[in-house]
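Example 3.
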Amino acid sequence: MDTAVEIRGLVKRFDDLEALASINADVLVGTLTGLVGPDGAGKTTLMRIMAALMAPTEGTVQLAGFDVVRDADHIHVVTGYMPQRFGLYEDLSVLENLELYASLRGLRGGERSATFDRLLAFTRLGPFTRRLAGQLSGGMKQKLGLACALMARPRVLLLDEPSVGVDPVSRQDLWRMVGELTEEGMAVVWSTAYLDEAERCDSVLLLDGGQLLFDGPPRDLTGRLVGRSLRVSGLGDNRREFLATALDHAAVCDGVIQGSGVRLVLAEEGGTSAVLAEEGGTSADVSAGETNRVAVEKLCAAHGAQLVTVEPRFEDAFIDLLGGGPEGRSAIAERFGDVALDGDVAVSCRDLSKHFGTFVATDKVSFDVQRGEIFGLLGPNGAGKSTTFKMLCGLLKPTSGDAQVVGVDLRTAANTAKLRLGYMAQKFSLYGLLSVRQNLEFFSGVYGLSGANRRQRIQEMIETFGLERFLDASPDLLPLGFKQRLALACALMHRPPVLFLDEPTSGVDPITRREFWTHINGLVRRGVTVLVTTHFMDEAEYCDRVALMYQARLIALDSPDALKASAASTEHPEPTMEQAFITLVEAQLVEAQLAEVQLAATQATPPGVAA
Amino acid sequence: MSPALSSAGSPSGSPTVAADASDRVAPPSVFQPRRLAALVRKESLQIVRDPSALVIAFVLPVVMLFLFAYAVSLDVEGVRLGLVLEDGGVAARELAAGFAATPFFDVLTVHDRRQVEDMLVAGTLRGIVVIPQDFDRALAGGTPRLQVITDGAQPNTANFVSGYAEGVLATWLASRQTSTSSGGVQLEPRYWFNPEIESRRFLVPGAIAIVMTMIGTLLTALVMAREWERGTMEALFSTPSGIVEILIGKLLPYFALGLLATLGCTALASTVFEVPLRGSLVALLLLTSTFLIPALGQGLLISALARNQFVASQLALLSGFLPAFLLSGFLFNIESMPGWIQLITRVIPARYFVSSLQTVFLAGDVWPIFVRDILAMLAVGAVFFGLTAATTRKSLDR
């Protein structure tokens, strides 16, 4: 097969930071190559270098035979590039955006109109040509961005995180479109922080911290783990306890909560004999492959649980490549002490609505969150999760409806309620100009701690989260994992019985995400109630119950297993959370799209556009 | 026609470049009028739909002109003055009546200076005039004395108070002379170009300079930073469009916007504020066009350095708006500034614009002045564009 992009010894440094460390890789014509890795892995830098928007510090990159430094102008002709956030002009209409890029790419006359027809049909944006790009949904913006990038039939299509901010249904659409393009012979590079998307690519470049960890078909990577991915079921309410024990077990490399069960990855053989000897060992003639499995089987038997081997996932392989996940005990949870709370309902809302002008962000949402429960609000960007969430922790005033936290009415006593809840905002919201210690002092003060109590709590947080080394540093300079610990420490300073986490792990690598959930699982076992919003579909599996939000409304509320079961079909007998979500949304979406087409047909032209 | 256009744009060309041999790529051209036209059209649409751009171009000028025409008048009227009348004689009372009669002062008459001293300290009075006890007698003797105390913390007002006080005294003396003798010399001052010495006559042209600075520097810096922030600059860079096209496509619409705003200001100045345009419209537009070159260049340079809107606006206000306000000779006379500050004003394009604008409005077409100012503005503009060219490449590397 022909090589579309050839990367040789590529290094990119920004001042002291090495963003890419000697990368060697090829991207082939007619394939979908996934550029996969957590935030900060170097994906965008590599994309920009391939698009000839940045120069390598060392090494060479050739695209369609052109050098990215010498022949940048040629590369701009033969590549289509969609940057993060689409690169669209939001105050121009769909058609005006298309016209701009068509002119910039030199399309004229008959070819121009033919291309427009083809792209509008391909993206199904035909009915919306007069709408301003800023008024499109995330999925439609994405398709318009793709259409603009496809304008001159590029040989190489570079898509930087195209699935961020796009609902699962539109994402399906996008995969279909990209599939058609590769069949036509285009080379497509799709960068993503969602590891599950790697499984859908023909080939994968796995980046972490600027290093290329893996290059090849995703099956080759997951294939190494066949037989090592397990699902433990029948644990009842003890799955978090079990997970904590299992993660500390040397035979286990990684584990996460998955609905009512636990998903485990066995450690690679070798180096585990010491642990096994400690536990009494196994007979010497047992083959190495069975050793870890036998150890885990014993563990399961002790908990009265069943064990089945399941298909390995890309994320399992990624964690395994990095040498396994964090341990299972949470020091903070152990110090926390049990939470006592009157009543069984920690948070409740009835017909909660929020309108911004004519825009309805949350539409009559009702639910109860039980004490000691992890309750997830799941939905794509713009579904209304954050708005609902902010009303529940007293940051936004509802337009109508009631909300209570630990029995306190948020409409009348929002400040009383705030003292009983901990809130961790998106992106951690720490003060970069204060030191770590000053951040801790500030948040303890805000939550009304004083005197000896305050000093003791701060010291406790410093010790349990291992922050001593960083006390005088700015939070901005901390490694991501420590930044997250600090944010959690600040939210837990006053030992709140209810914890609100808004997108706590977006932009966080899978290891740090696991460490975070270890703390959360530990806290829940102490009786803390946790409300969490997330757009990671698999993260929803960590929750006891999940509320699915779509277009301001709550469309489903159940345990993750029940939600998945309700979406089971002959096509997908065991759907993932994402597939379940798509099934549940699809019915609603067909309705919504019909309405939208009707609206577009009757809508007047946008302001300033000549009819 | 450029080669890129003919190959990429021709309908007979192969529909899928990817399937083609890799050598059949048209060599890209650096500059193409069609691409520039598309960028200009895009920018114009954005201006028309962006209320903030229209506010800066058309509402802000109106507000500024009103402020400078009426609120920031440098003519002083109704200054609160304490008059201490220690002498009860006829001459003293006549003089006191003279002070009370002038519109420049709002007089509070007392007979003991202790009554008003505290008020001067408190700032309720701007000055005190003392007509001493023996004023009448001294007048007969030939050397009458009058004491004027002013608030030196406000030097401008203090100067006015003493100046006008002298004026009142002179008028009074003159009227005594004409009533007693028919001789004496009368001074008849004439103020050229602004016969009524109304400050709005020279403030309004200056305000136009400020507005042009806002459009040229602030708006340009902001919209460039916006492209960086929204990631659209990255998308533009990934197309065959050259950096010159992208920059000129950005500048042309704001250049046109600046000229339109100038016409609006001029119309407003001559109709509402009665500030006539004595020179020609051609000269005015030529001057404005020239000034927009350094102003836009400065905006571009700022956006090359700061790629977010907040920093860009701070830089534009500090390096564009403030100097245009303080160091252009618009409010404060450059000749009365310390020498080294006068030197700084020489690199501020607004200085040359203000001087030639005041000329074109109040005096007429004085080409020697215009040519001098135009050359100076072009020189500053060349420096800004040179620096921008040196710092801006079609690359995300910094």
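Chain A touches chain B through 55 residues (CB under 8 Å). Chain A has 20 helices and 24 strands.
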